[in-house]
Design brief:
single chain; alpha/beta; Rossmann fold; Nucleotidyltransferase, domain 5; 2 domains; 8-stranded mixed beta sheet; 15 helices; about 35% helix; elongated
């Protein structure tokens, strides 16, 4: 490396890691309340503040924050954070990008106006650089450049890069061309302007599994991207970032009540709710299981060659965290019929009661497949002398492999579900369409277990099988 290049690299690193020359607000949230006393500081914003503080202290840090819309995330990251970072280090050169130049300018103007309105922060805007799209601090190297998606940033190095909502809406997210444009913007323009040690934060709502978040966490996974996803509603208490109880909604910066969250969930629909509000999008048509593959029976079949139950139990040691699912399946010639399903968050005694009830309702379903994991062995031990045909099933391979193995059956039109008006059928279709990116896979596991078994044991009682399940 030449001496000139080495000295330039050292200068850039020194600028980034230079200790703050100003005292000021301890967190971005503290600064937000100075800028706007009406700011509502929620537990979700506390988490974001902590993540941003850590990012700024971590060389080459990479952070993705996803959270429901209208809950203060963009204001915190695109306005409060850059102002707070400049108070800490006025020599930081910041690039802030968004899906459109207008939005980028609005963000840049908000940061500039906040600094200008609060001289007590210890920094001031330079007289000759006051445009919304580009301005600098008086007496320092630092400042902010705002760019819209696709805009060039040649000649503008970044000590900190902020990307706020690279996609505008569903229409853009569903366009492969625009998704490719976003990716090219990152690889060809933004990433090329990063100074040594410069951190990057992407703040967005999820629209599509192949959006910028999806690509960064797969194609650029080696960069060490940290993902902070804060869902509107708690799905897994054991891993919930806010430590909430099951199904509890987040404290809203807009003061939404639980009833208002419920109303929004209904009007959003399952696909939008899963993507924008829970942070795990799925293809509209589906992934391994396409939505339009499923057929529906309108009258229960009168001839049943082989009828079984298939159970996916809750994990041991968790209290009503996971769903328990029991399904009844039948095979007639080359076709497979889902006849019935029960699903709930049940403790062990309740699970035992549900197995008994389903067995009473479908006495012809003598074979009862129970995955040999979670509470499955305990269920079998408890009911072995009461109910016949309890079969422990040891899954082979991962969930995705097992799903792919049976996916040709619905694809060929050989799988029939109850009428679409049946209350639980739409949730079944939605879950399998979102697999493996959805928040739950209990219905998927029960269904793939049943289909695999019926495919290898077309008639007669269950016997030892081959394929992805061992029947033992």
């Amino acid at each position: 490396m030449s001496t000139a290049i080495w000295e330039a690299a050292l200068e850039a690193a020194a600028r980034f890691f230079e200790p703050a020359t100003h005292t000021g607000p301890v967190t971005p949230g503290d600064l937000a309340r100075i800028i706007d006393p009406r700011t509502v500081q929620t537990p979700a914003l506390d988490l974001i503040d902590a993540a941003l503080e850590q990012l700024l202290d971590e060389p080459d840090g990479r952070l993705i924050i996803t959270m429901p819309p209208q809950e203060g995330k963009s204001t915190r990251v695109a306005r409060d954070f850059p102002a707070w970072a400049l108070v800490r280090n006025p020599d930081l050169r910041i690039i802030s990008g968004s899906y459109a130049q207008g939005l980028a300018n609005r963000n840049g103007r908000a940061v500039r106006n906040a600094i200008a309105a609060h001289p007590d922060l210890g920094i001031t805007i330079a007289d000759d650089h006051g445009a919304a799209s580009e301005w600098s601090l008086a007496g320092h190297h630092g400042g902010l450049v705002s760019v819209g998606r696709g805009a060039g940033v040649a000649g503008r190095p970044a000590d900190l890069l902020i990307i706020d909502d690279p996609l505008k809406d569903r229409a853009e997210a569903d366009s492969p061309t625009i998704r490719d444009t976003c990716w090219d913007w990152w690889t060809d323009a933004l990433a090329a302007r990063l100074a040594p040690g410069a951190p990057v934060v992407l703040i967005t709502t999820r629209w599509h599994e192949d959006d910028m978040v999806g690509r960064l966490t797969t194609l650029d996974a080696d960069a060490g991207w940290q993902v902070l996803n804060i869902p509107a509603q708690c799905e897994e208490p054991d891993t919930d970032p806010l430590g909430r109880d099951l199904d509890e909604y987040m404290d809203s910066a807009r003061r939404r009540t639980p009833a208002q969250w419920e109303a929004r969930k209904r009007t959003a629909g399952s696909r939008t709710w899963a993507a924008l509000y829970q942070g795990h999008p799925s293809p509209q048509a589906g992934g391994i299981f396409q939505r339009d593959w499923w057929r529906h029976w309108h009258h229960p079949p009168t001839r049943l060659d082989h009828v079984i139950q298939s159970w996916d139990m809750a994990f041991k040691g968790t209290d009503r965290t996971d769903f328990v699912v029991g399904q009844v399946w039948a095979k007639i010639d080359a076709d497979y019929y889902l006849l019935d399903q029960v699903r709930g968050r049940w403790n062990f005694p309740e699970t035992i009661a549900q197995v008994r009830l389903l067995s009473d309702r479908w006495p012809m379903a003598i074979g009862k497949l129970v995955e040999d994991k979670a509470n499955g062995p305990a269920v079998i031990d408890t009911l072995r002398n009461e109910l016949p045909g309890l079969i422990p099933v040891e899954p082979r391979g991962g969930k995705t492999v097992r799903a792919e193995a049976v996916s040709p059956l619905p694809e060929a039109g050989n799988v029939y579900l109850p009428p679409a008006t049946t209350p639980w059928v739409q949730a079944f279709v939605d879950e399998l369409a979102s697999f493996p990116n959805g928040s739950h896979d209990d219905q998927t596991d029960a269904a793939t277990q049943a289909l695999a078994h019926l495919a290898i044991t077309p008639t007669g009682p269950a016997t030892h099988g081959t394929g992805f399940w061992d029947i033992g």
